[in-house]
Specification:
Blueprint (H helix, E strand, L loop, with lengths): L4 E5 L5 H10 L3 E5 L2 H5 L3 E4 L4 H10 L3 H9 L4 E4 L1 H6 E5 L11 E6 L9 E6 L8 E6 L3 E5 L4 E5 L9 E6 L2 E4 L10 H12 L1
Parallel strand pairs: 1-2, 1-3, 3-4, 4-12, 5-6
Antiparallel strand pairs: 6-9, 7-8, 10-11, 11-12
The structure holds glutamine.
Glutamine binds next to helix 5.
Amino acid sequence: MPSPSIGVFALQGDVREHLRTLTDLGVDAFTVRRPEELARCEALVLPGGESTTMYKLARAFDLFEPLVERIRGGMPTFGTCAGMIMLADRIKDGIVGQETLGGLDITVRRNAFGRQVDSFEGDIAFDGFDGPVHAVFIRAPWVESTGPEVEVLATVPSGPAAGRIVAVRHGNLMATSFHPEVGSDDRIHRYFVDLVQKS
Ligand code: GLN
């Protein structure tokens, strides 16, 4: 199968880590800052970072509407952390006027894990994987509720947030609250590349 062309939204966030992981998987991966670059994408990654800034920059760089259109048109898209917020149809604890690109039928809560424990890591089971993934959460959102077509791929196994949903898939869209681009486990990116190749 030819390697897919996957863009990484690059106006803000941990772009480099996604590019490296995708490139190592043999993907033609490149940065997306302009509508012409988006037009080249078969699929897109929305990285972790700060969703409020991403939203403002996407507007300022005339990428917001083209992104909404491509996502509605079925472009496979994978959001991590802030990227999950960008893909969510509904958002809690956003800043006033914060908009999302939408497409994923979920409600997310920003910075949901609380200020004291805003960064933590742990091993969690991921649907269909043999062993757990080591998940790094940094001021992460969680998924507060999901629509009927959304598949839950991972939940927090224990602790105060036990049972909270932290990875989902809805058709060609997928999202994680944590950062699979950090570290050397590429299984979640491979899962996305498979989804792109099957779409
Ligand atoms: N708290 C950030 C936001 O609201 C997300 C943090 C992250 O992507 N690591 O966008």
